[in-house]
Amino acid sequence: MKSKLISVKTVVAIGIGSAIMFVLMRFVALPSGIPNTNFNLSPAIVAVFAAIFGPVAGLFIGFIGHTLTDLTWGSPWWSWIIADALFGFLIGIFWKLYKVDEGAFTLPKVLIFNIVQIFANAAAWIIVAPLLDILIYQEPSDKVFVQGAVAGALNAAVVLILGTILLVGYSRTRVKAGSLKQGEDY
Q1: For residues 125 and 152, is the Cβ–Cβ distance under 8 A?
Q2: Which one of 44, 168, 171, 181 is at 20 to 30 Å from 141 when CA atoms are compared?
């Protein structure tokens, strides 16, 4: 039997995650005070789905959700779309370490998740997005590095608070491996 490149479960997660990301970015964003940089809750959604479903889901949710949002505002801003996709991918690479789906998202796993998400935010928003802004759009470097730093800090805070709460809550709904044994009456 052939193995699937991507599971149906992951495809469904990509669709749902992208839709939630779009709604949050499009309708629940607040200005940050820095031009073209908003505070929104969508990074938590990308992080949660990436932590549960892995790097492919994180990559596509970040890419599709951000692209749809940009298309409704006018035209896609590819540097930030790529940064969101990279963010989701980087968090998803370590999804097996978090053990969210196994009901074992304990304090050490929470710490690992948040260390990873902070580094993923730094890579995406302090390095990749500004450099691509300069390369693709010839934006001034002082402007894009400030935007990237603000976006990265806001996103890291949102994921730290909301993302962690959502993952802890979800993990508590999962049955821990070995917690139920065959033949036991409850």
Answers
A1: yes
A2: 44
